[in-house]
Specification:
Blueprint: H1 5-9, E1 14-16, E2 23-27, E3 29-31, E4 56-60, H2 84-93, E5 98-102, E6 131-134, H3 136-146, H4 153-161, E7 168-169, E8 176-180, E9 192-196, E10 206-212, H5 235-256, E11 265-271, H6 279-286, E12 295-301, E13 311-315, H7 323-331, E14 337-341, H8 350-354, E15 360-364, H9 383-402, E16 425-426, E17 429-431, E18 441-446, H10 451-455, E19 462-466, E20 469-470, H11 474-482, E21 489-496, E22 499-506, E23 508-509
Parallel strand pairs: 3-4, 4-5, 5-6, 10-11, 10-12, 12-15, 13-14
Antiparallel strand pairs: 1-6, 2-8, 3-7, 9-11, 13-15, 16-23, 17-18, 18-19, 19-20, 19-21, 21-22
Helix pairs in contact: 5-9
Length: about 500
């Protein structure tokens, strides 16, 4: 087998996919066509007894093409049957030990060139086997080597286009050696905190004022401007929140200098790792430097800079019994209109405190077109509006630090905001942002009155299947939600402890 060394060195022969695993093995080669389990009109790439155990599998991307190089199943681009997840799952279910993806010859639509780790960041499932994207030239060399010159990529593709089912296995003696060593990138980072000691009989109790200081740099995660490698300044998200924390720290420190009343201690903390999954606040909860049992309140400040029409969102208003009386009284003298949500859950750091039975409030001025783009710059921030919120935060903190009795925690997930997903239905769960390598969707919270709540899905459950089809992660779950309408009945499989449970769920509309 011959591969041009110069092209190999320049990375022109193959690309590593983001879901590639680490392995070193000498494997015989098989060809699995387009890797489609079930397509239109009975199309399948597999015979009933196909076994790929211990084999490297060459897989065509996309779906069957006509003689003009266009999809046989879609009038524009490709149909959902071309999806990578389902193809990879089909190979994994049959025991594949490595996946070698190649673009079809003469395909009119689709991507040209080789994929990279960066370009395939959304590929799932995550694998523990090699997954490479080969050039057509390299794939042809492999086939010629494995078949002793009797098979070509063009001929095998033609068979797959014509719907000839069944995997083609090549000589075990003509094995290929594949070595991959893939390490997930990581960042060393820190939470940063400052303390304002309390006084008197309340000094050993705590109030936390927090917000995240990390952002997405050049777009390392969550950018809404893919391919734009400019710095994403994050003026609103979340320099505005960090600035608010600093101002509140200064104000409270100055007032404490002449305050003789008993007062709770305050921790002002800026979290890192929020954008990648609430990691900083989760680390703090798991490794607290203060007594969480004596932490009475957490105020979260995230995206404070775009106040419009003097209306600000306030989440967590149902997490302490006293908020029902306190918040209207403190908001009334201001010029602000406060839109309240009772739930203590949401995609920001307060959620980790709420799950520790700590009352929370979360101020937020709303999503905008510049969110997670390079256009979230300082001159677009509304400082006068932020100042109004800072003033309100100060009086809330004055009450929280001085009231003789602690707030009374109440559990509330009512009104947890539904994210815009393009789906007509809503399940009503909050997926974990810190689930790590969990296969499935770990549930951090369930909103009252939703489909999930009524079906008996619980916090801590892991969704593993939908109508019997495996769920690898959040993207798989969203695919199923988008395919349904209100009133549809489905079976969702969850892992709860050591049990696997099938739960009947009637899906409700998003409103």
């Amino acid at each position: 087998m011959f591969i041009d060394a110069a092209k190999f060195a320049r990375g022109e022969d193959f690309g590593v996919l983001a879901n590639c695993g680490t392995a070193s093995a000498s494997l015989p080669l098989s060809f699995a066509g387009y890797g489609i389990d079930a397509g239109p009109e009975g199309y399948t790439s597999f015979a009933e007894d196909d076994d790929l155990s211990g084999r490297a599998v060459l897989l065509l991307r996309y779906e069957p093409l006509d003689e003009d190089g266009q999809s046989q199943w879609s009038e524009s681009d490709f149909s959902p049957h071309s999806g990578i997840r389902e193809k990879f799952r089909a190979l994994l279910d049959r025991g594949a030990a490595a996946i070698l993806l190649v673009n079809p010859v003469d395909a009119v639509d689709g991507r040209s060139g080789l994929e990279t780790i960066a370009s395939t960041a959304g590929f799932r499932p995550d694998l523990n086997i090699p997954a490479l994207h080969l050039s057509q030239e390299t794939a042809s060399h492999l086939l010629a080597h494995a078949s002793n010159g009797t098979a070509s990529l063009e001929d095998l593709q033609q068979d797959a286009n014509e719907g000839i089912a069944g995997v083609r296995h090549f000589d075990d003696a003509a094995a290929i050696t594949i070595e991959t060593d893939v390490a997930a990138p990581s960042f060393n980072t820190q939470n940063i905190a400052g303390l304002l000691p309390g006084t008197g009989e309340l000094a050993d109790e705590w109030v936390v004022v927090g917000g995240h200081y990390d952002h997405i740099g050049h777009g390392y995660t969550g950018s809404r401007a893919p391919g734009d490698d400019r710095v994403h300044p994050g003026a609103d998200d979340n320099a505005s929140g960090v600035g608010t924390i600093l101002i509140l720290a200064d104000r409270l420190a100055q007032s404490a200098a002449s305050d003789e009343r008993p007062r709770r201690s305050v921790m002002f903390i800026t979290f890192s790792g929020e954008e990648a999954g609430l990691h900083g606040s989760r680390h703090f909860i798991d490794n607290p430097t203060i007594d969480l049992d004596k932490t009475n309140f957490m105020l979260n400040l995230d995206m404070m800079g775009r106040l419009r029409g003097d209306t600000v969102a306030l989440t967590g208003t149902g997490t302490a019994k006293e908020f029902d009386e306190m918040l209207p009284r403190l908001v009334e003298p201001t010029d602000l209109t406060v839109s309240t949500t009772a739930s203590g859950l949401g995609p920001s750091d307060h959620s980790n405190f709420y799950r520790q039975d700590i009352p929370v409030l979360f101020f937020f001025t709303g999503i905008h077109d510049d969110y997670h783009t390079p256009e979230d710059v300082s001159w677009r921030v509304n400082p006068e509006g932020t100042l109004k919120i800072i003033d309100l935060c100060e009086v809330i903190l004055d009450e929280a630090t001085h009231k003789p009795e602690p707030f009374t925690f109440t559990s509330s997930t009512a009104g947890t905001a539904a994210r815009e997903t393009g789906s007509k239905v809503r399940l009503g769960i909050m997926p974990s942002y810190t689930a790590g390598d969990v296969s499935g969707v770990l549930i951090d919270g369930v909103t009252e009155g939703t489909s999930a709540h009524e079906a008996g899905i619980l916090e801590g459950d892991i969704i593993t299947a939908w109508n019997g089809e495996h769920i690898e992660g959040g993207s798989d779950l969203m695919k199923h939600l988008r395919a349904h309408k209100p009133g549809d009945e489905v079976t969702i499989t969850v892992t709860r402890g050591d049990e696997s449970l099938d739960l009947a769920v009637t899906l409700k509309g998003r409103k």
